[in-house]
Amino acid sequence: MADPKGFLTTPREEWPRRPVGERVRDWDEVYVPGALLPVVSRQADRCMDCGVPFCHQACPLGNLIPEWNDLVSREDWRAAAERLHATNNFPEFTGRLCPAPCEAGCVLAINQPAVTIKNVECAIADRAWEEGFAPPAPPERLSGRTVAVIGSGPAGLAAAQQLTRAGHTVAVYERDDRIGGLMRYGIPEFKMEKRHLERRIEQMRAEGTKFRTSTTVGRDVDAAELRSRYDAVVIATGATAWRELAVPGRGLAGVHQAMEYLPLANRVCEGDLESSPLSAAGRNVVIVGGGDTGADCLGTAVREGAASVTQLDIYGRPGDERDEEADPWPTYPKLYRMSAAHEEARELRMGPAADAGEGGGGDVRVFAASTLRFSGDGEGRVCALRLIEVDAGRRAVAGTERTLPADLVLLALGFSGPDPGDGLVAQLGVELEGRGTVARDGGFGTNVRGVFAAGDAARGQSLIVWAIAEGRAVAAAVDRYLAGGVSRLPVPIGPDDRPMRV
User: Fold this and answer.
1) Per-residue model confidence as pLDDT tens digits over 203-243
2) Is the pLDDT assigned to residue 358 strictly greater than 50?
3) Which stretches does DSSP call E strand in 302-381?
4) What pLDDT score was predicted for residue 356?
5) How far apart are CA 44 and CA 73, in angstroms?
6) Could you tell me which of 256, 251, 266 has the C-alpha nearest to residue 299?
7) Contact 117/43 with Cβ under 8 angstroms?
8) 96, 155, 340, 441 - which has most CB atoms within 10 Å?
9) Of 129, 38, 138, nearest in space to 78 by CA
């Protein structure tokens, strides 16, 4: 411990956000540039160097958190970067996008605010790039074996980088025109600027990984034929089959899936479009779904100039403090959280008068709300959403129906598994679980020899940190398969591991 009394004398302090009025006028990241290092230099001292660091267990990557906290407190950034990259291929991604289950498992969090582990991680990653501590690491020699990775999200990229560094020749196939999967077109620029993604892609190219964009395996390339050309195949397509909302009026114009809306806004930021054809500008927007994807839609709609925005969450409003019976430490608690997007919408008073609270400045979220139907304007376009309050069992509460104005409705209800319509599953002949995900054995292998599956395609919708852990673990499984049963690559998780819960 650099400071044995740090956790007693120093309060929790997080990376400050830019003023709302400033940040909603651009698509840059919401945080104050250059303000992170002074924060983490103090926060790293709060780590207690626990004898049993539960943050290790809460993080599926097994990040060596107390070790790099101590190194940061001593300003040994090179060593801190080495320890961080020892378990995480892309810490600048997780440091911005992960909800930090490690902080929920921090021992200090038993009775105090946790160490800002996520901020320290991000600071190390950014400093590593600035100081040149993350050079390409090409293999010393090639194995002569080839691997096709289908999908370039965090699981696919992590698997590809690990296998490339192990000496195999890896090609990543991506259906979109750019590499990155949902990190590219699903995550808004204000949450993670794509320069971070581009930097890693260039690093991987320098190491030897090959990329094939605008190629949908199952349509543009026959999956069975692809399997015959490579010694092994990794399915890492993500869970792209979105969940639907089967209510009257679903077919009205103006009702769209979140992943129809978000990619267009990202393409504007990429320079592909001057403006989004689904822009929220001047519209009354209703987002159905209370998760992170819904919040991403919210922040995007705010920047596009929506007239009003409401986010519906079928669950009741969480508490402000951990429920020790429902979510005991060190599990990840369900708490009332105010994301940057929620903060923006509240401060700008973007909720309709009926839902914005006293004075019109309240939270734009409506909790315990279920959608009954959409109404049209007589010309086939949505103009209103009818909702009803529900109890904890999702049963309708009589007399609570009301109507919200809605010119644009975005469905952010999550994803179930790989898209069954792209031909990949059928052409490879891999089996699916009942919930629609790819079935696999204890070694990440499918029923087809030499075909493996990782990430949301097999696990189901999950967090970026779990996707990276899956990518690292499946790489070890593929390496063992290619090398005759032996691999030196790390295995952070097994296919059946799940987050800590009651």
Assistant:
1) 999 999 999 999 999 999 999 999 999 999 999 999 999 99
2) no
3) 308-313, 365-367, 369-376
4) 45
5) 5
6) 266
7) no
8) 155
9) 129
3 confidence band (pLDDT: 50, 70, 90): confident
How far is 411 from 66, CA to CA, in rounded Å?
40
pLDDT digits (tens, 9 = 90+) for 185-195: 999 999 999 99
103 φ, ψ (degrees, to nearest 5): -70, -35
Q: Say which residues have a Cβ less than 8 Å from residue 80's Cβ, sequence separation at least 6.
A: 68, 71, 72, 124, 127
User: Which residues in 390-491 belong to E strands, given as ranges?
Assistant: 402-405, 408-411, 415-417, 451-453
Q: Which of 394, 377, 396, 421 is nearest to 255 (CA)?
A: 377
AA identity, residue 433:
E
282 Cβ contact partners less than 8 Å away, ≥ 6 residues apart: 305, 306, 307
Distance CA 358, CA 492 (A): 48
CB atoms within 10 A of CB 225: 10
Q: For tokens 């990782």, what's the residue?
A: 454
Q: Tell me: cis bond preceding 330? Omega within 30 of 0 counts.
A: yes
Tokens linked to 374:
């959409």
- Predicted local distance difference test score (pLDDT) of residue 1: 61
Q: Which amino acid is at 203?
A: Q
Backbone angles phi, psi at 273, to 5 degrees: -130, 150
480 Cβ contact list (under 8 Å, min separation 6): 443, 486, 487
